[in-house]
Amino acid sequence: MQQSKGKRALACAFGAVVLMGLYGWIQNSVLFPRFAEFFPVGRELDTAVRALLYVGVTLAAGNRPGILDAKTIAATSVIATASSTALIYASVVLQSAIMATAGIVFFEIGHIWIVVFYGLAICLLPTPRHTAIAAAFGIAASNLLEQAMGILPLEAGMTAMAALPLAALALSWMSASQYLARMQHASTPSDLEIAHPSAFLKPTHALFACILVFSIASGYALTLNEVDNAPNRSPLEWTVLLAVAVAIVLARKPGGEDALFSFSALLVIAGFLAAPFTFDSNAPMANALLRIGRNCFDILLWMTVAAIGKQNPFALLVALGIANAVRALGTIVGAIAGHTANDFVSLGGQEAHFITACALFVFIAFLWLGFRKFSFEETINGVESPEITTQHSAHEDSFEEKCAQIGTAHGLTERETEIFLCMARGRNVGFIQEHFVISRNTVKTHVKRIYKKLDVHSQQELIDLAESSAAPESQRV
Q: What is the pLDDT of residue 392?
């Protein structure tokens, strides 16, 4: 029974990846080329709105997960996606930038939650390897179908833009709704992060910087050497991605994240090197290399976020939100660079070569300076579980006395000792805040000072310290 459910979840996640890949292709090949005729900043506006909404998702997931009701979110997504698609279609027909702007905003309000559901469905598969298989085969399949589909007429394209995300929502519903239901009744990630800082990745973590840089390369590939304002595609992209998917299946040992990262980086570097040779011919070689590198990195990103979610389920939705917000920002920067290079190529100058050389230099410098010692595998393993286990003590007075002695020995203040005792008993931030009638920021400051003075890095380490010190001599090892 459990195995059957796992296969069904894998099939649903694979289907969602294919559908969302096709949606992205239709948006870039059908909608945005029409926008270019009367609303040239439409693509960048759409991506910017998406980035802002992902910031909102991250804040809600981190601070108020209780408001994330799956049924309400799904209903909002269906209504917003269907109605705003009609508005966007009308804006294209009427050539109205105002209608296009309104349509983009409402469409992304509905679409953003579909992406969240689809992301959760992928990351909640039994293992990160299952996630990698679903992502790799799904991306390869969507690339193959894109080649077979070609560029659709406007009416068919707009219908597909509404239908494909909603179908992906249906496939993702079961896994995502169950996860959100659990999070509604759990402690907020922001509270847990105070007591368990090692269980969460901060927005400034190197992983998100890496996503930003690869997304810039992705945006550059999206707009470089455009053909009729649509992305320049190669029919061979899906074959490389299929080979990567097969390699993941055949891999006997878990891991491999760092090897996949190196492969992705080499493809992006090759794409930047090839770009100047395609300026006059519009050959898709550079675009293909950059996109394959980006897609391989996307597979790696799914694996990494899924593994983080396995270590700490409370961090999953927050990590997804930050990753997608950063990816959207990087895509904007890269797309603008690609448009700028195209403009200079049409003028016959050398500025396009200069832009490409600068992009390549920044990419290599970033890898050399920031990622020589970075490891995806170490990042995953470094995320701790926030689960707290406590042991009942029959000597409560002795336990309090020992905690007081620890506080005195390490220079804790009276209030810090009181909070230390609460944390040693497994109390969370919300309890401490209400018990002492102090603000969350004050609790956060006290916890940081307590951790520093005790030389611990998580609440579990603090509990272990208190319990080992409070245990009777006969129970100590």
A: 45
